[in-house]
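Let us work through a complete example step by step.
Step 1: write down the sequence.
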Amino acid sequence: MGLYRVGGISLPKKKLLSYCYSTIALATKTSVPSHSTTHSPSPFHYRPRDQSDILNSNPFDLILDEKNDSTRVNKRTINEYIIINNFLQSVFNDDFGRSRIILNKLSSRIRDSGLVNYYSCMALLVSHLLSDSNNLTIQNIKILIDELDYMHKKNDEHLYPTKEIVGLEDQIKIKLIKCLLYCFHDASQKRNKQNILISIAEYIYTNMQKYSLLKNQELIDELNNRKLLESYIHILRIMGIPIAPALMKQLNLYINEIEAVNADDDKETVAIESYMDDYGYMNLSRLCQYITDSRFTKYDKDEYKNTPHMFEIYEDLVQKDPNQAEIFYQEYIDYNKSRELNIENSARFLMENMNIIGNNSKKKSVSSNLQDLSLGGFSTSHSALLTKWLDDSVKLVIDMVKRVQAYEDDSRKKEELTEDEITVLRSIAIMNIVPKRSLMLMLISSLLSRIMISETGSIYLSTITEDFSRTFKWFLWKEKSLIPVRNELHRFLKDGYESHQLFIVLLKLVIDTCTIQLTPDQLNDLQMNCDLLNNPMRSEFKPNENGTSPAFFHRVVRIDSLKTTGIIEIHPYLFGQLKHYSFITRTNYYYFPMIYPPRPWVAPDDGAYLLNFKSIVATTEIKTSLAYLNRAHKTNQLESIYNGLNDLGKVAWAINPKVLQVFKDIMTKEVGFMKIPPSIEKLNHKDKAYHENRNRRIEMETLLNVAQAFGNNGDIIFSPHNVDFRGRAYPMSSFLNHYNDDLTRGLLMFWKSEPLGSEGFDWLKCQLADFIGKDKLTRIEKIQFINDNWEKIMDCAKSPLTGGHKIWMDADDPFQALALCFEMHTIDKFLADGGNIENYKTRISVHQDGSCNGLQHYAALGADKEAALAVNILPQPNLEDRGDIYTTMLDKVKEQITFEIEKEKEKEKENENESKPTVNNDIKTTALQILNRKVIKQTVMTSVYGVTFVGASRQISQRIKEILELHELRMKEVSLTNETINILEKQSTSVANYIANQILKSLTSLFSGAEAIQDWLTMNTIRILNSIDLETIDYALKNNLATLSDIFSLKSTFKPMMWTTLSGFPVVQLYKNTKLTRISTSLQRLTIKKRDSIASIDRIKQIRGVAPNFIHSLDSIHMLMTCLAANINHIPFVAVHDSFWTYPSRATELASILREEFIRLHSSNIIEHLREDMIYTTRNSYQIAWFEKDVYPQLTQDIEQLRSTYKLQGETPLKSRNRNSILYHELVSLTKGTTDNPLKMIEQVNPKLYFKRMKVSKMTEYGYSMDENNDKSLHLKHLTYVLVPVRILDCPPKGKLDITQVRNSPYFFS
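Step 2: predict the structure and record it as tokens.
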């Protein structure tokens, strides 16, 4: 079968389009009427609900298929494992005949999971035929169709096919038709006689009719390349069926795409294979070198031969000939497509080299500045040792597999196998299919990399098995030869039980195999070092009679009085030797920035990277989240999210060459610089911060490597975005995105430049002042500050590391400040040469940050004027003044503490016996002395996200720790008395508790509206989680989670708290209880956490998370609305949550847009809509409530009389009533709408009802008002229970804030 080349990748024609970028037009964005503004607003509105609404989603339906799939493997017997393993091998070896024979064996096992196994294997075989098989003939496909039809008939006669089996059968039918279409295409290319083609077409047409696939949209969606679509259209024409215009349009698109890809293949590019090792693996350094070496060279001649950066070439062309500049840009982007595909393919599985590559002739084309290294940068001696380990362990694995295979077909001899060998037998297909050297290389790499970054030279056994599972998963994605069996291998990993068993068998081989031999001198040095550190060497590591010692040792340690766990330790000599290296042999998977524009998001699992390996939502509950999002996608509720993420991802970035050079210079320094540690060999091993500094240094070296890869040529880079479950946008790349730290942000600038315009220079000055730490000055004061320090800034730019002025080093954000110092210096020269400041073109972004944005949203939600003034929603009386919530809170706290101290002193005067201030008063005085803006800032900031008293106290404790550290360093900013220092050292917890309590009390007084909304959210969440619905009750009974006798005492619930945002995005709190699974292995019993889609939700996390998650969903919507409105108005826009970035020339426009969008957001009755969501999701749910018998005796008597008439299952009306049976009867009645329940009586009398909150002994009033949430001590024997519809509390009262006043507040975002 012919191959196309895309860059360095060889692809079958059938697979070509799955690797190619498909151009998808963005959805049209229409503006809607809004407040009177000069800009076009974002297209947001609340969507009316219908039956398709995401809030109608049933979690049990969403996850049913996943549950069936996850339990499938556990049902297999050992004999089924052997049969399936043999089947996998036959498919992998392209042995169609043997595959059919084994399928026939499986067809005889149609009980329980046997039928599922049969259809799974059939689907695998057909998928393999589709991928690239020599057995793709119409005769073979006919055989499979006949077998499928036979099994279908057999199932209908003898079995009831499950939903899962029907789904598998439907998939197989579509794949078989695709196989037939490929066969038809091949027949048409061989110029067969027309009558033969007609016969084939009639056969295919007949099967499409039989399977109800004629013009079936699901089949049409699968026709994803030219061959399939041409064949399908050709058959319809032969059969006289009209062709839909949409099909012809799609065919033309495929034809154009193929031509474009073929044109790309003709372009010169660097072959990525030359950067791989003997086994086809790539490490990070070589991938970075490939990025540099594969430069777009078409313009590297004549006037641009000495221009290193792509953005400079583009900029020059823009000045000379804008049309030529656009031609250059398009050619450059087109060229980058194949580079991007190569980067994505390689970055997903990076592995340090395990063989000596210095003499490999295949590497000669690699740039000479790559050193010829042994094993990931190790010395030759260490490399030889590790290579020996690899060779020895591979040999043992091969021997074990051979022994197991010899016993495979003889059941009588299986009893002779050891426990480990039986484990290998169960997974014999994996052991035969996956390259054994690669398998052991991954294991040793994972083991070493994990142990070497630890502080103790040991690692938990569970950690290494989980790590290896992830590594193995990426390996499956990377290894093209495993495509036919990839799904089955993923099931093996997903099961967890058997994959962990196999991994531990392999790990045990490594432990038993890997040894070291120390010389007497090395042994003496090691013993001396252990004695000095008072850390005796374990006896297990001492040499045996041959002088060898185990390199690794497994033992079980006790964590506490109840728990033990297994750890693997490395020999102390090896730990001391290998920790000197900055690289450890290991596997990594990274998401690099893109050098080609991200694919537009068009579905929850379709967008961003060209190879489409990350979904739109980043969460550990990926499958369940996607199930909800797919439903929202079908109702077009995600269009705004798609458009916003697409807009964020299309912004082009570049590496700032001047900041990059300073970074490189710092990394060569003998000593550390600011937060960058020195090289690893210069670190002090005895320093308690050694491991932290070592890891930080490795991070810095990795960042430098990647930054140079993209920065050497001034490459364009893009940051594709996705969201978390709350809708907050995040870049998907692991490196070089604007969400990273100050250093990374300083390295980044826009790839394209724009003129400063009339106000841009002032925006840059304000930005620099903010970075230096003058963010609380007024705008005029910031500009004046920069003007006054101009010469210092110039000195920083001229000599950043050696100059006399270090203003950038003392800045709050030093590297971002340095980038602006460089820019100011360039502007200074531009002006000196007579340039007009408005014409100066810059690539530096300016930021506008919210003033404690979470509290801004709370103030707007509650229309709280006092709070709005504190967080700059309202302008200050003097417009040039700015409200500072942190200073305001600091003053309030100080005032309260001073008041309490004075009150304490008055008490002392009244009490003559008290000669000294109390300890309590000492703590108050100490708290007052250390209080400053920094001490309280984090607690104030996080209060909006539900920080508890314990959390706030921990935050203050950390600030106290920092104060003590600064005092120890004799920093000028810390001048405290010895008495204060003594109290802080001995009673820091008491001081922290006191300050935390004062801050939270002061916040409550100032932001009472925010607290009311938080309480409202929390109380409603408790009600929703405590509610009961028939669907959940029946599910629990059916799955044996409870019995009828205790069903209404069940503490589990499965429906999470959820709501939809203004954009239509569903926020689903998938906080679940993790299921612990115990696995018996030959090393130890292993407990792993297994995520189960049907696990009960974690109520505590649901309740604690609702308030912060709700606010996060609001700030994400404000950002998204601003993004879309900015894009409509052609303003480049990126953001870090509540920090909005653009070019200096567009900052004023953006300032207006973000205010207008905030007004639109908070003019939309958010709390009312959230309450409607809560009512909607609980419309079929009920609450167990109680009323007092003595207060309502007649009602009690009437209800008891009604209940005596119930005919309950297993009971007669005369027998004593069982509470749960009665409740179940009434729940069924209420759900079905019958009158066999007391609800009408309750509605007529309207008694005062109570309900039980979680873990609260008292009863709480069950009304609609927050004022009715009073607790009362009541005994159940004095109460009557009833089921009533869930009551969602009325919205909390609002103030009289005019939200439109934010237009006049200059420091709302600044």
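Step 3: interpret the result. Residues 71 and 717 are 43 Å apart (CA to CA).
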